[in-house]
Each structure stands twice: as C-alpha cells, then as structure tokens.
C-alpha cells in the first residue's frame, strides 16, 4: 500500500472525564470519497475537527503525507470544511462569499475573480455571482459553501453533514452532485453523515462508527453484505437478525431448522447470528417454503411493499416484495444459501445505547465551546 495522504494513529479524544474517541486509527488515500457513518454523538465530527486542526487530540498522532501535524494550525493543513449550516455571510453576494478566503490571502483581484468564476462554474452557479445569499434555495446555498471551499484548492474537503437541512428530493439530487464534483476535482472528500443510504450511494469507502470507535471499514458493498457484528448489520440498511448455531461447514441452524449456507471454518455448535436482508426473501407458496410466516402488516413504498410478518417461533420478519399480501394470510418464504450471512459472536463494547446519550451531550457541548 502507498503512503496514506492522511493517517490517524491511535487517536483518543477526551473532554473532562468523557472519552469521545477511543484509540481510533484510519488511513485516507488521495482522490477518494470517504464517509464517516454512525449515529449522533458517535465521534464523527470530532474526527473531522481533529483532521481540520480545530481541536487538539488528547492522545495519538495525525499525519499528512507521513509528517506529524498535531501542532500544525488549521490554516496550514491544506484542508477546507463545509459545515452543516454552511456558515455563509448574509451581507455578501455569492461571489464575495466564494472569494472570501482568497481575499484574506491577498490574491490579486483579477486572478481572484478568475478563480471565483471557475469555482462557480464547477458547482453550476456561473450566473449567480451577484445574487444575495438570501435569494438562494437551500441546495444553491450548499453549492456556494462548496465553491468557497474548493476555490482554495485544498487537497482534502471535509463535509460535516452538509445535506441534512435539505428536503428528501433535493438531498438525493445533491448526492449525485457531490459525487460527480468529487470525481471531476479528483480531491479527497471526507463526508460525515448518519444517513446510511447517503453513505452507501456516495462513498468509495465507509468507516462505521459507534460510541467513539470504528467498528468496520470497507466498500459500501462489503459492509452491506458482510457486516462484522450486530450493530453494523442493524445500522446499515434493514436486516432480519436471528440467533442460531453452526451445524457443520455450509450448514446453519436457526428457527429450529437446518439450512444450507456458504460459510465454513466455524466450529460445530458455536452460537452465531444470522443476517438476512429483507430484499433477499422471496414470497412463495407454502408447499415450496423454507419458512412459513403470518402477515402482520404491509406498507406500500412506491416500488415495493414493506411487509411485516411473524413465524411459528415468534420471530419477526421484514420482507421487501413487489407482491402485495393480505394481513393474517400465511405465506411461504424462500432464500438462497448465499443470502444467509453468518456473524460470529465476538466480544464487543457492552451497552452502546446507554453510552450514546452521554457521547452526544458531551460532544455537542465541546463543539459549542470551540
């Protein structure tokens, strides 16, 4: 592997007696779209602030191109940040907002105007330079904030939940815009979100976080298909998670039945958890069913039905199907061996949920004071 552009090694961040980041290590390569994904208060923004130079870490080291930068101020790190509230100046025009950093750098006016024009063209706002910020939509304001960041030609762009204030349709459109912009610019994006769909759609690699730790990292496909533990499986998309045990190589047992799977190398009778995604379950007649369930409810989601059901062991099931069902009806379910994902019961941090409220409160307070 080539030397990472940015690397965190065993970074810990504490505020008073509260640990916000716990021995976090990660590496970012040049020119990729990375996402920090996790629930509110898990430490995502704290990592962003540490990389940006806004906060000093309690322990551990941060490296840019192999050089330790713990003591390097934010204005010398060649990174820029797009904040959740955009932080635009309402008394300035669009062009003046974009030019702000270049003005501080005392760039000559003619060159500054050229750079502003290029940045506005990149975000498709070429004709908006003289407009007031108050005259723009939420999506346009977000693009101005991005233009103001990229005009400084950073090697890394840090984005702290910049889509959270947008409505669902605009948010989806801006996902395409951001991904396209990152690919055209060829710079590294580090994006913070709690929205799983957003992370899966936009990222080259995702870091899944909870309670100050990185639980899993990898491509969206790998994380979705191969979650390492119960939290990741439950947090990324929707899942049916059931207790079971290995019978032998390529055989698992759950719901008092034995099924074929594609997993091997796990000792017989070892307790496991089985993950089945709702879209991998197929409705079938009772004679060809691997499982039989009774329909509890269903919601029409536009291109599929979201169906809730219960089996004869009392386990709840979530099913995504293009077929409608009837409440109270008994139906069959079938699936393929590679639709079953086996998770071993690794020891993990106890009671994530109990810690989460404290993390959210402390991290929010620390950022307000910064």
TrEMBL record:
Its EC number is 7.6.2.9. InterPro entries: AAA+_ATPase (IPR003593), ABC_SmlMolc_Importer (IPR050093), ABC_transporter-like_ATP-bd (IPR003439), ABC_transporter-like_CS (IPR017871), Mo/tungstate-bd_C_term_dom (IPR008995), P-loop_NTPase (IPR027417), Transp-assoc_OB_typ2 (IPR013611). Keywords: ATP-binding, Nucleotide-binding, Translocase, Transport. GO terms for cellular component: ATP-binding cassette (ABC) transporter complex. This is ABC-type quaternary amine transporter. Pfam families: ABC_tran, TOBE_2. Residues 6-236 form the ABC transporter domain. The keyword Metal-binding does not apply. GO terms for molecular function: ABC-type quaternary ammonium compound transporting activity; ATP binding; ATP hydrolysis activity. It comes from Levilactobacillus suantsaii.
């Amino acid at each position: 592997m080539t030397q990472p552009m940015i690397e965190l090694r065993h970074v810990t961040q504490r505020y008073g007696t509260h640990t916000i980041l716990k021995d976090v290590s990660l590496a970012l390569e040049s020119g990729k779209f990375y996402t920090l994904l996790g629930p509110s208060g898990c430490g995502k923004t704290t990592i962003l602030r540490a990389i940006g130079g806004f906060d000093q870490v309690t322990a551990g080291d941060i490296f840019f191109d192999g050089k330790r930068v713990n003591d390097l101020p934010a204005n010398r790190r060649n990174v820029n940040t797009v904040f959740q509230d955009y932080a635009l100046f309402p008394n300035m025009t669009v062009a003046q907002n974009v030019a702000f950093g270049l003005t501080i750098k005392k760039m000559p006016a003619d060159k500054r105007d050229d750079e502003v024009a290029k940045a506005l063209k990149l975000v498709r706002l070429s004709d908006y330079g003289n407009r007031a910020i108050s005259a723009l939509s939420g999506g346009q304001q977000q693009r101005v904030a991005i233009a103001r960041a990229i005009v400084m030609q950073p090697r890394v762009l840090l984005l702290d939940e910049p889509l959270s204030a947008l409505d669902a349709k605009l948010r989806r459109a801006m996902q395409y815009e951001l991904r396209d912009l990152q690919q055209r610019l060829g710079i590294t994006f580090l994006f913070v979100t709690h929205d799983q769909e957003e992370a899966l759609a936009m990222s080259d690699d995702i870091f899944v976080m909870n309670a100050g730790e990185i639980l899993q990292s990898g491509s969206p496909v790998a994380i979705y298909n191969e979650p390492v533990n119960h939290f990741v499986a439950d947090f990324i998309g929707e899942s049916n998670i059931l207790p079971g045990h290995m019978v032998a190589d390529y055989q698992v047992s759950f719901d008092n039945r034995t099924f074929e799977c594609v997993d091997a190398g796990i000792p017989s009778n070892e307790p496991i958890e089985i993950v089945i995604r709702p879209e991998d379950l197929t409705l079938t007649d009772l004679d060809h069913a691997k499982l039989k369930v009774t329909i509890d409810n269903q919601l029409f989601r536009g291109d599929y039905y979201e169906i809730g059901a219960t089996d004869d062991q009392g386990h709840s099931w979530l099913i995504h199907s293009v077929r409608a069902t009837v409440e109270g009806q008994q139906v069959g379910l079938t699936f393929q061996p590679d639709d079953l994902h086996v998770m071993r019961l690794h020891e993990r941090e106890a009671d994530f949920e109990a810690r989460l409220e404290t993390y959210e409160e402390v991290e929010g307070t620390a950022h307000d004071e910064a």
